[in-house]
Fold this protein.
Amino acid sequence: MDAAHQLIMANVGKHLSLTPDETACFSQMLVQKKFKRKHFLLQQGETCRYSAFVTGGCLRGYTLDRNGFEHVLSFAPSDWWMADMYSLLTQQPGSLNIEALEDTEVWLLSKYDQEQLYLQVPKFERFFRILTEKSLIAYQQRLIDNLSLTASERYARFCQRYPTLIHHLPQKQIAAYIGVTPEFFSKMKKEFG
């Protein structure tokens, strides 16, 4: 078992205990894929057909407004899952762009295989319910933060949520996540000291 496979199995192991047969069933449904920096896993208007588990690199999920301004909703560094949840669950065209911020390696699980997994290894319903609940909580908290916190407070929340990305991401990406211009973000960081 290579390091990437060990990482996804450890991620699943946080919530499920699998038999060797169940592990083999899950593993057979995964497709390993590599994306070059700035390449898309999903673009706005496409239907999301996969959940992606990041084993190396980093993804970002964002939308574009009418003026072409990017609104970053989330990042997925190594050991994180990402999908356009609305599109994946409804199989309708989505509004999220999912882009590799750097060369990124993922395991993909198709919506179809996920449904088959529920039938073959029912305990995976629990695993993906937990992921969906955590995603819902994160998006709700993000909405509340954007409505009620200052830019500095939103940056502090970013640092709590993504401690490994604070010094790893370009400032432009962090600014888009907290909803400010890169210039304002740079000035705000100087005031932080």
Summary: The beta strands are 31-35, 40-42, 50-56, 58-64, 70-77, 81-82, 97-100, 104-110. Helices lie at 3-13, 20-29, 85-90, 111-120, 123-148, 151-161, 171-178, 182-192. The radius of gyration is 17 Å. The first strand starts at residue 31 and ends at 35.
